[in-house]
Specification:
This protein is of the alpha/beta class. The chain is built from 17 helices and 13 strands. Strand 1, helix 1 and strand 2 form a beta-alpha-beta unit.
């Protein structure tokens, strides 16, 4: 059984783990439990490696990085937290009966608040479970369930995590086997499959599985000038499923882009074969989600990272600072870009033309790649199953 959700950073590692488990033995059965109303669940349901899925209620404890105790005084936040506590209790009951029905051998928890009621129900049913953290700061969900976990799998040095060290295992971040080092021939293959010309320069904008509204709006302010200055440039913008219609309408607005310039922009909500689009990209503009960074590191991509400033624990800020300190990416701050979008414009232009800088970033981000992470994690999950 696998659980986790709320963002693409939770879903894509689950799919990577599921694919590897099925690769070991197609007879293995994989059951997914996700949260009701999670738009990303449909991508789990469409995956051939998931045999069955269930949806439960799950409660989210809302807290925001940098707001401290002030958020506890916000009536709207307090009411939502009270409502979601009820959802949390319902979710435990639902999970209990699902686990009683399907009788899983083991549970893999990727994180996200849906994982808490599932793991607690697994504990009640004496089903062992394994957690996984991609960031240097554990998620609140995994903190709540880590003590009784069989293992706590982590991405970085075990010593930085507040877990019982004897069962904290470094595996890295699981990513799909579709992500591999992109050489000239593989890039040409992807270009052909995506109907792009070999002489195109490709810019990928990706805000994570849910998109990033602020990045989308910032980019709209520079897209016209960017396309006019770079006649060979094609832009692939992954805007998030909830933003696809709105962003498509904005790009279609002739006051923003002419019809000719618009033809060089491709807008998508959420796509499963991201590896092809990142594979052809000369430059990637991304949030600082650990999973995306792990994927781009394996491919060896030059990235401009814009961390989300508001996520709990500031984990994206920490991810971005790590990349900046190791000269593995250009890092820009969202608040500065809101004031001056041309900071992003200038960084994109520089990376498109400064081959020396680009090669330095690629060389350094490749050092962070963990291509065997999925296999290590699945070995941990299946070690008692002799699969």
């Amino acid at each position: 059984m696998v659980t986790g959700g709320g963002s693409g950073g939770h879903i894509t590692p689950i799919l990577a783990v599921a694919a590897e488990i099925k690769k070991r033995d197609p007879k293995n059965t994989i059951i997914y439990i996700g949260q009701k109303s999670d738009d990303l669940v449909k991508f789990i349901n469409s995956d051939d490696n998931i045999n069955q899925s269930f949806s439960i209620f799950a409660g989210k404890f809302r807290r925001y990085h940098g707001e401290g105790l002030f958020q506890l005084l916000d009536i709207k936040t307090v009411l939502k937290n009270c409502r979601d506590f009820i959802y949390f209790i319902i979710g435990i009951i639902q999970s209990y009966f699902i686990i009683q029905k399907v009788k899983p051998d083991i549970l893999f928890s990727r994180g996200g608040y849906v994982s808490v009621p599932v793991a607690l129900a697994a504990r009640l049913k004496k089903v062992p479970y394994i957690t996984h953290d991609s960031d240097s700061t554990p998620s609140l969900a995994n903190k709540l369930i880590s003590k009784k976990a069989k293992f706590n799998a982590v991405a970085l040095d075990a010593k930085i995590y507040p877990y019982i060290q004897s069962k904290t295992i470094v595996t890295g971040i699981p990513v799909s086997s579709n992500f591999s080092r992109v050489d000239f021939n593989l890039k040409q293959k992807y270009l052909k499959e995506l109907n792009l010309n070999s002489d195109n320069k490709v810019l990928l904008i990706i805000g994570g599985g849910l998109g990033a509204v602020n990045i989308n709006l910032i980019f709209l302010k520079i897209v016209k000038e960017l396309l006019e200055q770079e006649p060979k440039l094609v832009i692939i913008h992954l805007v998030g499923g909830n933003n696809e219609t709105v962003m498509s309408v904005k790009y279609d607005d002739t006051s923003i882009l002419s019809v000719k310039l618009r033809s060089r922009v491709r807008v998508f909500g959420f796509i499963k074969d991201v590896y092809k689009y990142s594979g052809v990209a000369d430059v990637i503009v991304s949030r600082a989600g650990a999973t995306n960074i792990a994927e781009f590191a394996i491919q060896g991509k030059a990235c401009i990272i814009i961390p989300s400033p508001s996520l709990a624990n500031g984990h994206q800020l920490k991810n971005a600072n790590y990349l900046s300190d190791h000269q593995a990416a250009i890092v820009l701050q969202e608040n500065e870009l809101k004031s001056d979008p041309h900071l992003l414009f200038n960084s994109i232009i520089k990376l498109l033309h400064d081959d020396k800088l680009k090669e330095k970033l690629i060389s350094n981000i490749l050092k962070e790649a963990q291509p065997d992470a999925t296999k290590k994690l699945v070995n941990l999950i299946l070690q008692d199953k002799h699969v």
